[in-house]
Design a protein that fits this description.
Its main location: cytoplasm. By secondary structure, this protein is α/β, with parallel strands linked by helices. It is built from 9 helices and 15 strands. The chain starts with a strand and ends in a 6-residue tail after the last strand.
Length: about 280
Amino acid sequence: MLRIAVPNKGSLSGPAMAMLHEAGYQQRKESKELVLVDPVNEVEFFYLRPRDIAIYVSSGKLDIGITGRDLLLDSGAGAEEILQLGFARSTFRYATRPGTASGPEEFGGMTIATSYEGIVTKHLADQGIDASVVHLDGAVETAVELGVAEVIADVVETGTSLRNAGLEVVGEPILTSEAVVVRRTGAPADDPKVQQFLRRLQGVLVARSYVMMDYDCRAEHLERAVALTPGLESPTVSPLHNEGWVAVRAMVPAKDAQRIMDDLYALGARAILTTAIHACRL
């Protein structure tokens, strides 16, 4: 069986299990379940701490895993990213009290508090900055107020927590993160079980990003209508019983669907419908 690590808690857990469910895999019903076997799909899921997943995968004990790019890089494990999943997006940045420093180049001699020691240590080394790094497990915003550090490095989403702590973001983002699928560095890239798993997840990503659009239009307006809905390879066009009319079906980006419907209607198209796509293979 394909052995897959799944986050057992935190912001990665719920969306990861939802995506796996949409991809046709069984998922646990109780948070206490640590292992779940899906015999139909020949997969065994292991629910682990997100921070540990890259380490388990790099050891070869598990074939692949879902974790955050930030956790993968911070672990220093021998694992690599093979698919971006589009959720749990975040930005990793430095923050400090206003007036302390305008950027990392001024961090020399300072202490930086973070839960991501590996990422910060490497970033400082790459920039040639001589600063100390102290590891804290969460709630790093208070480190400056308590005098543990002059600077913090942490995941920033809205920045509200930083402002409440009297801090401001400085410098460019250290990295941007999101949920990713990882495998052991050097593992065979053509493993058929892994490829099938990736195709299923890619199908979910496409299904979430597109809708199917159907509409009727006059034959003389077809070329302009098709320019609005080119589909992936080409739209499906069928003649209607009423002479001079055709039915068109095409996949369109979900984010543009309403605008496209407006443009089609203005062109004379009618019976314009959109339907959700639950699964696909491209």
